[in-house]
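Put briefly, the fold is written as integer tokens. The lines below illustrate.
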Amino acid sequence: MQGKFFRSLLVQSGYVILTGITLVFKPNMLLELFGFAPTNEVWIKVVGILVFSLAIIYLHITRENRGVAMATVYSRMFIALAFGLLAAFGQVSPAILLFAGFDVFTAIWTWMELQKK
């Protein structure tokens, strides 16, 4: 594809890769950091694999693909809203808002990059 890099999606890719790898190989480290009980169940590794697969998508669209890039903005804002609601209703530790904050930051960054093009 032609066009400029979406640097915001490159940064988001790195964040998502690290999160996915951590969930697969050291899930309890991440779970405990965000106030979740440790687990030995395989579901958390499945989530890590799904999260890692998002990074593949983000990496693929780091070149100008405006429609998909904008879809990631909406998706990341939805994730932040959902995490915020889970925290507000006491379903998860407010520490999850660290994830939400990074998603909002990179979503706004991507949106700003889209406005320049």
Notes: The helical segments are 7-25, 27-33, 43-60, 66-88, 97-116. The chain has five helices and no strands. The mean pLDDT is 89.
